[in-house]
Amino acid sequence: MARLKDIAEYVGVSISTVSRVIQNDQTRNVNQETKNKIWQAVKELGYIPNQHARNLVNNKQTKTRTMKIGWVANPTKAEINPYFDKIYTGIRDTLTNHDFTLITITKDELENETLLLKTIHDLGIEGLILIDRIDDSLIEYIQQTVPLVGLDFFYTDKNIAVVDYNREAAIKMVVQHLISQGHYEIGFIGGGINETFEDLHAENRFKGYQSAMKEAGLSIRPEWVINTKWRMESSYEEMNQLLKRDREHLPTAMVCASDLMALAAMRAVIENNLRIPEDIVFFGVDNLEMSKYSSPPLSTVEIPKYEMGKMAAKTIMDMVEEKITLPVKLILPFELVIRESSKKRT
What we know:
six-stranded parallel beta sheet, elongated, Rossmann fold, four-stranded parallel beta sheet, 434 Repressor (Amino-terminal Domain), about 350 residues, alpha/beta, single chain, 12 strands, about 45% helix, 14 helices
């Protein structure tokens, strides 16, 4: 187990300097470059800053249970997006039923070194469920102390336990269904990945759309592909522009990577005096509660959101109690929900 002395020697500074940085002691200034080197050494050497945390790593004695699980997400994410609200509810209900307390932790708290130590060690968090994307090196550091479960597409390819659904397969099924209904001119509305959400081609739902179109021998028209960067207003505005550019050559169907993107684009269609589904059909993903109350009701993909949260909670509890020691991958099923926004072409 690394000590303060080891970090000091590794960086080439005094033990007191290392201690001041780790304890966030503001009485004497330490330049930022030195701070960065110290925190890098903390990660590389696996330093754990207090005896309680050392015991978690070494497992040399029975640890004191705190029954606290952290949920790492933007605190407003569940409030503004019903998709995450259902996942959160599944996590909360399951943990509460097993006498665990769910604590919201922001990405910023983990990425600030001092707050990271306080969150992981001083608060006694026994495990973390990740929604927001955090850096790979941070994942490796946290794993030295507490188990992790990743939810959603950020963590599918990481060496941690994951609960998710197959986004690529879901959209492929949607496109194949639309083709079977006589649609061959199919557009796509979605958002990219990475911090700016611009990389659409790396996003799994778009990959599913591309794959299904290619397998069917159908061409993809770039002007019918909209990257909204996951903003509803962009879905509405860009669909509006698509409709006005060339009224005589429009897609007969739009596949949308989420219900929210679909609902916004549908409004643009109605305001341009076109009919759904007679002129353009729409298909979303998520099966949010509001989708069945749109006009017309939105066809969508049912994603087991509550069950994803429930399974994430069960997995983290099993890992905390060492019933699971391997990074399990749980991929939950989905199904199409056919409503009036899509119908067979005649």
